[in-house]
Every structure is written in structure tokens, then in C-alpha cells.
Write a structure and sequence with these properties.
Length: about 160
Amino acid sequence: MAQNVLVGLGAGAAAALLFASVASGALVSILLFYLAPLPILIAALGWSHWSGLLAAVTAAACLGFAFGTLFFAAFLIGIAVPAWWLGYLAMLARPADGAGGDVEWYPPGRLVLWAAALGAVAITVGLLQLGTDEASIRSSLKAGLEYGLRQETGAWPTRP
């Protein structure tokens, strides 16, 4: 039991640091940001789904304490809960119909469907934050891309 708690706390701290790296603004931090669900999944798959849940809550709480409620909610909804849920589903097993102590695991095809559905929901919520129609989404994405490119190259616009 103590091992599950320690693994959950450590995985939560690792996930929070990976997610928080995006605040640095460095280009490599995008790769680290995309790896943020990995510690939660490893804890859920390797120890138990309770360790994964503790990792998710720990990471969200650390981010909420350090950066505020926006990071807390974004991490919890967009990364922590989906990673924990997929880890939980992957470890679901039941006794097989035949004798011999075999188990039947959760179907991999359904895991893929769950991952696709969670990804679609995350993208939809993200797009709704940018706007509700095509023109506003397109202009928000263009402005964000221009800002990122100017920041990365150092070519800030001059004021007239």
C-alpha cells in the first residue's frame, strides 16, 4: 500500500513537471508537454489504478498551487483524467469462460475507441475556447501561430 502511494506521488510530480515545462516557452518543452500523461499511465498500468488516480490528483494539485486554477482545470480535464481512465480500462480483466484460471482483458479495439473519443472531446473543447465559428477559430489560430513564430525568431513588430 505504501509503495502504491509513493509511486502515485512520484508519478504525479513527474507529470506536473512535464506539463509545467510548457510555461518556459522553449521549443523542446512541447515534446515534454506531450509526454505528461506517461507517468500517470505507467503508475496505473504498473501498480494499480489507485496509484494512477493519486498521480493524476497530485499533478493537478501541484499545477493548481503553482500556476492557478486554469492550469489545474486544463491538466485535470485534458490530461490527467483521460490518462487515468485509459490505464484503468487497460487493466480491467475478468475470468475467461474456459477453465484453467485464464483471464480475458479489456478489448484493445475498445481502448482505441476510448482514446479516440477522449481526443475528440479534448480537441472540441480546445477549439471552442478559440471561437464558435470558422472565421474566429481561423483568426485565433493565425494570431497564435504568428505570435509563436515572432517570439521564437525574435522578430517583434515595430510600432508605427
